Amino acid sequence: MALRGLWLISHGQDARGNVLFSRRYPTVETRAKRFNGASYVAVPEDGPFLKALLFELRLTGEERGFVERQDGCARINKTSVYALQTERGDLWPVVAFQKSGLIYAAVPLVTQSLNPRPALVSIGGVSQAFALLSGVLTFMNSSQKNEAERNAKVGQLRNLLMQACPLGTPLDTHLSGSLSESSPLPPSSHPQKLPAWRTSAYKGKPQVNICIVEKVKSVQYDKRDLADMWQVYGAVSCKCDIEGTAPNVSISLNLPANGSPLQDILVHPCVTSLDSAVLTSSSVDAMDDSAFSGPYKFPLTPPPDQFTLTYYTSQVPVPPILGFYQLKEEESQWKFAVQLKLHESVKNTFEYCEARIPFFNRGPITHLEYKITYGQLEVSKEKSLMVWVIGQKFPKSLEISLTGTVAFGPVSQQQAVDPVCTGSTAYVKLYFRILDFTLTGCYTDQHSIQVFTAGKPKISTAREVLSSDYYIWNSKAPAPVVYRTLLF
Q: Of 56, 81, 273, 482, which has the fewest Cβ atoms less than 10 A away?
């Protein structure tokens, strides 16, 4: 499993892209030419690669009509894996995603012919590319406040990748832990060679800390002709403080009898072996009915710093909070109604829970009357946002509602603008966090963790659920339609 190349690209509102960083691996390219045979397509130079990538991601900013290759119904992309049109043919697979004005892209090595194209689940390099790009994203987003700091981080990438991805082979996707300019490399006379991702040996009482974080995305319409969408995206972070140069640890993730199977699993390179059944379940293939329900066992040699053991997705039966939103104009005022219902299977203890109701492309709120069954309603200082603070629990009925009327003053330049939310098109966005709970039921405990070292380790586990892009659209107006995508 190796990479032919990696790119970091800036993309601003002017629709022009700029390659901030690129790294190619000629030895991997030679292997790709040998493995792919007649189906081999060379990686173009940065300029043509950038142009093809922006076109494929629809980020050129050019006005154009319908293009069957990109806009046809058969071309809906669900995986963040693309084929780029080049002078020598289609370059595939290209892993790419956009976050905070930056595009992260990589071309993994495929060790077989590309004609016909093999299934993505059979290409191990795709998972490695996702994991490494996620590490680059985490590194770039850590304590970055301005363009100067961003440029400084870009300047560090080359040295980081020399350690984390030597000769195109990802060894450590936790780039922040690979930055070891202040710590010397272990001497060559060391009796036992350290793994590439372990820069130092721990001394002290063994400890293992594991945290499972599940983020739930949802888009709800309350319409017969539009299906609501929701999906869970999970990440398991670990910190193993264990003596020895290459300690062995085994961590198992478990599901209850009614738990939702984990899918699209990506693992850290330090995992030494994996049951093939763990990797076969996919949410991308609609015909895939495989459902491995665990336990999901990960034997590994952990790095010394905190790292993400695995990413996964899961399709839980119902969204945790189901709701509807109605907003319509009556004379000179707007009448609104919001209703939320917590599903009975969800733990009714929140660290916080609130619903934000923004009003875009309108003047400030000048008049508000409302009736609320639970919680309290606040209006932002800019008079363009209502915040329904629900608090830490739903009532025993698990249902709450907010109704009322609102009026707006003249539109000013200080008011919030949104190109989508015009007319009656509007949404409610939920923000919540639930501790000691997962929607899939996924958990681990001291009986699921084995540490093969002297002394009994101290084991700490935690889990939580966070909302992420949790939208409820106005059912009385048009709304943008979304489809599920495999994007962390």
A: 273
